[in-house]
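testing teh design pipeline on a random one, pls ignore if ur not involved
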């Protein structure tokens, strides 16, 4: 490595003064910037703001404010409602959708949003060069899969086309009951072709960034915040409730609670941002809200790695897990042990039971695989993301699983902790043996969970490819009879969680967020935990922390918390 020569002392002093003046200038700018109408603690740092490539809920919450698709999610029901398209027609066979765009659509920087922009955005998601993990959600579109895997080179052969400036026609392979919900997902959001073609991978750094949604990006400061401001050119700007929203990447539960208690945050998403040691007290307060939603915490096996390529080993590991112990000892927020992947309550579906807790059978299977009592079992690594000072749930679950597998099977599992960006990349590339995972449903249908384990789905990440499973998922999605569809999906999930498992469901999430309903409106409990930013606003002063008796009973414990944000979760 080359090192620069030492600069003269006078230059060093001048440089110091320049830096000092720069810092004072930046400080003055920060002090002068307007106060946000809403400050939301959003969890970890976003990985990307590109709708085609995101995979995390943290990113999606921000992107839903910046961009929009043909449909959008209703804040009350989380079902698809008109977005950039004001209406649509569906052909009698259910395979052709004709979307009619609003005639007043404009980019935040000026210039019309047209049907060609919709087509470009969908084709970009399907383009193999984009490397979208969600691209398979557009496989329902004619030739979507063939274009994504390179079998079809001509994008005009894909079943999405502009009939005129305000009309988009989409041709599907078969009727798809949840297709309008897919049209509200980030992978279909309309993005600025003019910026992407000019700046390539750096298009998100363009200032001002052209957006199609209710908010513009003011800035994204790493380890500080994402600031959004109202997009005055958005078609529904009159009903966008807040002018400026700050989203802070605070990953430590103690820091999140302190920022909320001191009035520096208005809304805190996620059960993981509630200190577990205070759950019993905090959940009694009126400003802490719990709800059931479509989320499952599970582990993935990389079935391409030995000894996890042996189904008996995978089953043994699954049967050795006491899931009730996990939720009682670790999560403590009302989570329910899971023996299947799809949560209870999904529309028109009844999940089958998977593998339960049976240590005796687990030891028998491990012995049959050639490792009686764990003898000769190679070192296996468990991958998770939980940085020091951040959210500890993944680390605590990992430690508990390590102990269970040691006690019940006699095997030694090594734990590996990595930063979030490395974690997601390693999981996508299959650079792991066992990995912690979770999935939040994108829409209220079993396919949002089961479809991702088909062979070519970018979210599979296990190396598990079963043509019989793929066929069942395809048959289910082609089926218009809800009872028949239910039964086909049950067969598929039985294969996934019981017969040949590449995963082990651990527990179903219980949603928790906290905000004062006397001060905040526009947040409604729904099964997808979907809360569009444009619907939220501050309505009054309210009373921070809820009832006085709840605060006083907890006061001595609260005062021990450090009021400064600690290390963020990555």
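output:
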């Amino acid at each position: 490595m080359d090192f620069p020569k030492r600069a003269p002392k006078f230059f060093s002093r001048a440089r110091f003064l320049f830096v000092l003046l720069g810092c004072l200038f930046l400080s003055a700018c920060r002090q002068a910037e307007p106060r946000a109408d809403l400050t939301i603690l959003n969890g970890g740092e976003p990985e990307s703001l590109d709708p085609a490539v995101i995979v995390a809920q943290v990113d999606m919450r921000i992107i839903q404010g910046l961009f929009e698709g043909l449909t959008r999610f209703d804040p009350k029901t989380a079902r698809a409602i008109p977005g950039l398209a004001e209406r649509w027609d569906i052909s009698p066979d259910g395979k052709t959708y004709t979307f009619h765009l609003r005639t007043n659509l404009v980019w935040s920087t000026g210039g019309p949003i047209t049907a060609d922009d919709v087509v470009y955005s969908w084709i970009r998601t399907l383009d193999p060069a984009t490397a979208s993990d969600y691209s398979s959600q557009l496989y329902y579109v004619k030739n979507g899969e063939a274009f994504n895997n390179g079998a079809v080179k001509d994008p005009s052969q894909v079943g999405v086309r502009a009939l005129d400036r305000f009309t988009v026609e989409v041709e599907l392979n078969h009727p798809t009951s949840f297709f309008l919900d897919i049209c509200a997902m980030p992978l279909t959001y309309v993005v600025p072709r003019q910026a992407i073609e000019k700046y390539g991978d750096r298009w998100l750094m363009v200032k001002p960034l052209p957006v199609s949604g209710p908010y513009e990006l003011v800035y994204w400061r790493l380890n500080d915040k994402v600031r959004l401001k109202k997009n005055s050119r958005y078609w529904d700007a009159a009903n966008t409730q807040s002018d400026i929203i700050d989203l802070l990447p605070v990953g430590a539960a103690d820091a999140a609670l302190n920022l909320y208690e001191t009035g520096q945050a208005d809304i805190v998403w996620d059960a993981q941002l509630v200190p577990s040691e205070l759950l019993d007290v905090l959940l009694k307060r009126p400003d802490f809200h719990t709800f059931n939603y479509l989320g499952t915490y599970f582990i993935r096996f990389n079935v391409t790695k030995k000894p996890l390529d042996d189904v008996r080993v995978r089953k043994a590991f699954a049967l050795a897990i006491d899931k009730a112990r996990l939720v009682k000892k670790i999560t403590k927020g009302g989570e329910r042990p899971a023996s299947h992947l799809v949560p209870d309550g999904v529309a028109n579906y009844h999940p089958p039971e998977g593998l339960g807790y049976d240590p005796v059978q687990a030891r028998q299977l491990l012995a049959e695989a050639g490792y009686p009592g764990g003898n000769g079992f190679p070192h296996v690594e468990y991958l998770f993301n939980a940085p020091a000072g951040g959210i500890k749930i993944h680390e605590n679950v990992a430690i508990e699983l390590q102990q269970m597998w040691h006690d019940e099977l006699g095997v030694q599992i090594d734990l590996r902790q990595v930063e979030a960006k490395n974690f997601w990349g390693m999981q996508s590339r299959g650079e792991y043996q066992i990995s912690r995972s979770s999935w939040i449903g994108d829409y209220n249908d079993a396919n949002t969970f089961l479809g991702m384990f088909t062979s070519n789905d970018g979210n599979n990440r296990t190396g598990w490819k079963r043509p019989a499973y793929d066929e069942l998922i395809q048959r289910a999605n082609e089926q218009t009879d809800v009872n028949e569809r239910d039964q086909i999906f049950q067969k598929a999930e039985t294969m996934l969680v019981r017969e040949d498992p590449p995963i082990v469901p651990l527990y179903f999430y219980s949603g928790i967020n906290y905000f004062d309903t006397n001060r905040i409106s526009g947040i409604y409990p729904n099964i997808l935990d979907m809360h569009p930013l444009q619907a939220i606003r501050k309505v009054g002063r309210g009373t921070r922390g809820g009832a006085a008796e709840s605060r006083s009973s907890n006061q001595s414990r609260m005062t021990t918390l450090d009021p400064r944000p600690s290390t963020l979760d990555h």
